[in-house]
Amino acid sequence: MRASQFFISTLKEAPGDADIVSQKLMLRAGMIRKVAAGVYTWMPMGLRTLRKVEAIVREEMDRAGAIEVTMPVVQPAVLWQETGRWDKMGDELLRFKDRHDRDFVIQPTSEEVVTDIARGELKSYRQLPKNFYQIQTKFRDERRPRFGVMRGREFTMKDAYSFDRSAEAAGQSYDNMFAAYRRIFDRMGLTYRAVAADTGAIGGDRSHEFQVIADTGEDAIVYCPASDYAANIELAEAVAPAHARPAPGAAMQKVSTPGVKTIADLVAFLDCPVEQTVKAVVVEGDGEDGLPVLLLVRGDHELNEVKAGKLAGVASPLAFATPDSIVAAFGANPGSLGPVGFKGKVYADRTVAVMADMVTGGNEDDVHLTGVNFGRDCPEPVVVDIRNVVVGDMSPDGQGELAIQRGIEVGHVFYLGTKYSQEMNATFLDDDGKPKFFEMGCYGIGVSRILGAAIEQNFDERGIIWTDALAPFTVVIVPMGMARSEAVREAAEGLYTTLKAQGVDVLLDDREERPGVLLADSELIGYPHRVVIGDRGLKEGKVEYRHRRDEASTDVAAADIAAFVLGKLGR
Amino acid sequence: MRASQFFISTLKEAPGDADIVSQKLMLRAGMIRKVAAGVYTWMPMGLRTLRKVEAIVREEMDRAGAIEVTMPVVQPAVLWQETGRWDKMGDELLRFKDRHDRDFVIQPTSEEVVTDIARGELKSYRQLPKNFYQIQTKFRDERRPRFGVMRGREFTMKDAYSFDRSAEAAGQSYDNMFAAYRRIFDRMGLTYRAVAADTGAIGGDRSHEFQVIADTGEDAIVYCPASDYAANIELAEAVAPAHARPAPGAAMQKVSTPGVKTIADLVAFLDCPVEQTVKAVVVEGDGEDGLPVLLLVRGDHELNEVKAGKLAGVASPLAFATPDSIVAAFGANPGSLGPVGFKGKVYADRTVAVMADMVTGGNEDDVHLTGVNFGRDCPEPVVVDIRNVVVGDMSPDGQGELAIQRGIEVGHVFYLGTKYSQEMNATFLDDDGKPKFFEMGCYGIGVSRILGAAIEQNFDERGIIWTDALAPFTVVIVPMGMARSEAVREAAEGLYTTLKAQGVDVLLDDREERPGVLLADSELIGYPHRVVIGDRGLKEGKVEYRHRRDEASTDVAAADIAAFVLGKLGR
């Protein structure tokens, strides 16, 4: 492609409302333009990159035996009512009425439509397994769209759905997709982790997220450097400490703690180690007594709400107790709560369960207790894992200590079981002649999101650094003063023609711009391989090559440059 | 592709609500499945064909120098309010509110968004001309979706928008797109006509429709077999008869015509030639007197509402007068109306203008007049072209008589001038340093609609007949009893491998189905080239080739079949 026939539109500054580096760089590099909050036009440079992502995803899905379809963007509510998602999903499901006052949604995913297709088309076990996928426009009406294409409202997603005869076969489909996802992200050249993820209300133990590693990621990924253990923080198990609980060493004492509301206040006021304090979190219960439930984690630990939400006796979805119900149940306001004297259900995190002489709230405003011991001062609690792991925790597989990275979720594989097939009565005839519900899995890839994630992982102060696989153009030829110098023109056109003939995705930046603009644009846009051709160099028979990650350019003999570049591309 | 790894899902009967042959065949061939009225899932077989259309369109748009972008499906109302289309467009514009109660539309076209891009990105005449296009999901909330993908609500459209410095340059962009469209439809192998079309309220004389010829088409296309004149019926000029008006030959007479309401009634009652009768159509005027306007066409002609809508003094948009206003102005009800005694404005079609001794309504219920003559019995009318042409009319270019065909509109090129750029204040700096409005054109192709149109043009009682360019697979290999016969398997696999190696888009139908099913499916789906391989033939060293249009199969030596097929493909 010649730049003069393409459309390059770079900006010196990103618009003020851009809130993350990938969004700023995509705007500056002319990849996207904002149309509304979370809604973008894909400009030529961005679309080209998006298509590279799509092509890799499509090739690997096809290779894995999945079959492409395209389900509609606009879907009738009646299907969404069958599964109950019409009511259960929040405002992120965009609902609207057509001219005849019939209800529709704009698809955020397509479980309903694909299950409707399966129940119409897949009649016999002989037709199984099947995996249908689409690469299609999706819409989620995010309350606060942000981070550009990473949390936009309109986006492109690859969603696949497998239909199997049995849970075992569904497991094979899952493994097949898992392997395809590895190939996809490997091919893209991204650094990522596949991490075990929570399966939520659906249950089962088969769910993995594919996380692109980036410091700016929204998700915390837990892993063990000494093994292959990896999970997202919602799921990662905090194992019990290896030691037993020490015997009580102090008597329980009331301490007046005026104005002390937080653990930090408490530690400062009492000058005690934070590891001796216990944080009390009160959540709504689901019992008829209306009593809330008390959750205890060590003062320096964080409650894991996903884990807490699954506890017996706790309201679903998890809800923090209101101040009124806390005062009614504890006789005190938040800030001074604890287990001593509380009549309701108490869950203690595994770490709390081995503490002695704890510092807790006194269930009386501005009063705390020291020297609190389970079994002596209050009943033994139910011991559970309800906290987020922290760096240095023992890995659940016992192979070493846990580390934590930030990540951006770009893919998700999920074993659904018969949830949707049962809700929509989608069955096939098995070899015993009886109808059975499809065992399903769903597999998503955030196609447009990948671009943002790739940039968050690969950029510097000058701009984007694309991998070869994702770059809008793999190679850019930057002629210095092509309009003035016949030698430069000839060398640039010659290299362009040679590389094109070899099937290289090369851009000849023949725009009539100053050399400084061309060079800055090439770094902002982030083509991985750049050849600069100038009169001065040519006189010595040289041109300059530079990989976008290189500190400096390399002089290459002009006669060898095509072969040199092909070598860099691994040809 | 092997059928066992693809997804073929044919139906014996189309669902009952399918209302046109292409819709029935697309459903039966498993190309689409209905999700809601006018909303379909593209099944693998249909999607493959859709992608072929998209690829041809994309290649030719790129070749023509247009630049691909992707504008969002969901667009903010604020842009549509700038052009006034938010209010002006009817219910086919799907409007909705997001969770924050802000107004949005689902794009039916993208003039607003692309003009917004242009005013942001194209600052100087040096950047012009530019042509941005997208192949993207569109939605029109049709009152009565029908004809499958031909008049669906969700559909795929290629829409392009050119931005030019001057009207002259815009004309070159228009010609460039016109030529690209010719290449596109030529490559698809469709029989089509480019016809001049009405430019509606925008004005200008540059608008062409690309119409695929099919008896079932919704549009009437007028053309002159002796020249290259072609126009749609809305635009086609009905020229004045060559002869002058004869002198009056009869006196005007009142005739009592009880119960006579229509021209047919009148002709039967008076036993007169229909060519002597005049049809009176009353439409609302735009004058302060509130008087309606009388339009006269010959009894056997049809009023052309597009032409009538442009007449001075006629309300815009065209509206037929209400019975009350007709009685008030004429003193009679519809069925007995005419020019004699009417005080308002009268337009006569050119054919009516040369009539003498006309039969008209008498402006008195159940009364008609014979022997009516302009200039004697009523004032001379204003003479205009307000009727649809009919077969045998003289071509406006004087080269012969007009013929009429039915067509399906699949493309439209349109010179917009500065309508949108003015409404959205979209300017560039010209070489005189002054801001000027962009001269624009818009260019649509109904990508998904083309499939329906291609089928309406090419089918028989057994199914679809695809052209090589559009077929889901160009060649199908149908092995008879591949599971039973090693010879059949070997021959089929060998041919499949050979053709694939040559880059042929070939399907090996290796499904375990009865031969009758495989053969019927191949004709229903309509692959253009079929090779049937059976044991009996192989024993004589023969296989059968049949083009989908052939009456019978041709025996071909098994050893020569690959070369034979390649020959048929023009290789």
Automatic annotation (TrEMBL), chains A, B:
User: Where does the record say this protein resides?
Assistant: Cytoplasm
| Residue ranges of domain Aminoacyl-transfer RNA synthetases class-II family profile in the record | 33-472
Q: Which Gene3D superfamilies match?
A: Anticodon-binding domain, Bira Bifunctional Protein, Domain 2, YbaK/aminoacyl-tRNA synthetase-associated domain
Biological process terms from the Gene Ontology for this record are: prolyl-tRNA aminoacylation
Q: Which GO terms describe its molecular function?
A: aminoacyl-tRNA deacylase activity; ATP binding; proline-tRNA ligase activity
Q: Which Pfam families match?
A: HGTP_anticodon (PF03129), tRNA-synt_2b (PF00587), tRNA_edit (PF04073)
Primary residence:
cytoplasm
| rRNA-binding is among the record's keywords | no
Domain of life the protein comes from: Bacteria
Q: What does this protein do?
A: Catalyzes the attachment of proline to tRNA(Pro) in a two-step reaction: proline is first activated by ATP to form Pro-AMP and then transferred to the acceptor end of tRNA(Pro). As ProRS can inadvertently accommodate and process non-cognate amino acids such as alanine and cysteine, to avoid such errors it has two additional distinct editing activities against alanine. One activity is designated as 'pretransfer' editing and involves the tRNA(Pro)-independent hydrolysis of activated Ala-AMP.
Q: Which HAMAP family match?
A: Pro_tRNA_synth_type1
The family note in this entry says:
Belongs to the class-II aminoacyl-tRNA synthetase family. ProS type 1 subfamily.
- Describe its assembly: Homodimer.
Put simply, this protein is called Proline--tRNA ligase
- Its source organism is Crenobacter intestini
Per the record, the gene is: proS
